[in-house]
C-alpha cells in the first residue's frame, strides 16, 4: 500500500512539473533554460515511473482494489507524459533544425510592421538564406504558393477572416502592397511565431505567398510548415 501510494505521488509530481515547465516560462517565473531542464528531467522521471508502474500492475493484480487503482493511475499519468515527450522528440528528429518557412524561397515575403516587435527576439526578421531554403525543399516539398480564382482584395478579406478565427494577433493590413502581418502566441510555453502573407495579381487570379517564422529556437519542430499548409488549405476552401 505504501509503495503504491509513493508511486502515485511521484507520478503526480512528474506530471505537474512537466506541465508547469512551460507555463512557468510563459508567466516569466523562470528562464527558458530552466523550463527546458524541468521538461527534460520530468519526462525522464515519467518514463521511469511508467515502467515501474507497469511492472507493479502485474505484481499487485491480486492486491486490494485501492492499491491497484493507485498503480494504474500512476501508469496512466506517466504514460501520457512519456508518450507526449517521446512524440515531440521523434518529431524534432524527423525534421530539419530550421524555423523560417516560406512558399517563395527565391523572394520570401518580408516583414514590415512586425520588425519592431521582433527587436529583442533571438531570431532576426531577415530570411535565413539558401541553406534554410535547401533544407525546406527536402523536408517540406508541399509548401507552395496558392493560386485562387479571385481578386486580390477579395482574397485578402478571406485571409483576414481566417486570421481572426484562429485567434492570431492581426498586426497590419497593407492593401496597397498586398500584405497581411500577424502573430500567433502558442499555448504552453507562450512562444510567438510571426506570419506575413503577400497577395499578387496573376493571369489566373491571385497568388498567395506565406511566410512563417519563430522568434525563439533553432528548430520549430515542423510547426511553421504545418501552419502554412493548414492556413492555405483553409483559405482555398473558403474561396470556393
Briefly characterize the structure.
By secondary structure, the protein is an alpha+beta fold. It is built from six helices and six strands.
Molecular structure report:
- There is one protein chain.
- By secondary structure, the chain is of the alpha+beta class.
- The protein contains 6 helices and 6 strands.
- Strands 1, 2, 3, 4, 5 and 6 form a 6-stranded antiparallel β-sheet that branches.
- The protein starts with a helix and ends with a helix.
* CATH A-level architecture of the largest domain: 2-Layer Sandwich
CATH class (first level) name of the largest domain: Alpha Beta
Provide the helix percentage.
Answer: 40-55%
Shape: elongated
Could you spell the SSE succession in H and E letters? HHHEHEHEEEEH
Strand content: 15-25%
The separation of the N and C termini measures: 62 Å
Explain the layout of strands and helices:
Layout: H1 2-26, H2 32-59, H3 65-94, E1 100-102, H4 130-139, E2 146-148, H5 152-165, E3 169-174, E4 179-185, E5 192-202, E6 205-214, H6 223-239
Antiparallel strand pairs: 1-6, 2-6, 3-4, 4-5, 5-6
Helix pairs in contact: 1-2, 1-3, 2-3, 5-6
Primary descriptors:
single chain; 240 residues; Alpha-D-Glucose-1,6-Bisphosphate, Chain A, domain 4; 6 helices
Amino acid at each position: 500500500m505504501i509503495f503504491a501510494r509513493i508511486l502515485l505521488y511521484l507520478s503526480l509530481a512528474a506530471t505537474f512539473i512537466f506541465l508547469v515547465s512551460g507555463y512557468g516560462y510563459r508567466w516569466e517565473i523562470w528562464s527558458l533554460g530552466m523550463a527546458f531542464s524541468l521538461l527534460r528531467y520530468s519526462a525522464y522521471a515519467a518514463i521511469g515511473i511508467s515502467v515501474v508502474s507497469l511492472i507493479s500492475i502485474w505484481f499487485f493484480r491480486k492486491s486490494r482494489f485501492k492499491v491497484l487503482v493507485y498503480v494504474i493511475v500512476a501508469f496512466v499519468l506517466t504514460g501520457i507524459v512519456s508518450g507526449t515527450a517521446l512524440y515531440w522528440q521523434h518529431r524534432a528528429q524527423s525534421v530539419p533544425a530550421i524555423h523560417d518557412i516560406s512558399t517563395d524561397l527565391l523572394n520570401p515575403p518580408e516583414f514590415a510592421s512586425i520588425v519592431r516587435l521582433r527587436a529583442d527576439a533571438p531570431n532576426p526578421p531577415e530570411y535565413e538564406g539558401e541553406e534554410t531554403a535547401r533544407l525546406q525543399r527536402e523536408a517540406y516539398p508541399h509548401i507552395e504558393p496558392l493560386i485562387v480564382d479571385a481578386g486580390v482584395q477579395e482574397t485578402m478579406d478571406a485571409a483576414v477572416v481566417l486570421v481572426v478565427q484562429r485567434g492570431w494577433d492581426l498586426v497590419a493590413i497593407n492593401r496597397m502592397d498586398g500584405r497581411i502581418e500577424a502573430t500567433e502566441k502558442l499555448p504552453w510555453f507562450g512562444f510567438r511565431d510571426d506570419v506575413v502573407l503577400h497577395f499578387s495579381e496573376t493571369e489566373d487570379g491571385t497568388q498567395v505567398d506565406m511566410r512563417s517564422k519563430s522568434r525563439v529556437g533553432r528548430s520549430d519542430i515542423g510547426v511553421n510548415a504545418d501552419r502554412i499548409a493548414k492556413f492555405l488549405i483553409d483559405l482555398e476552401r473558403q474561396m470556393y
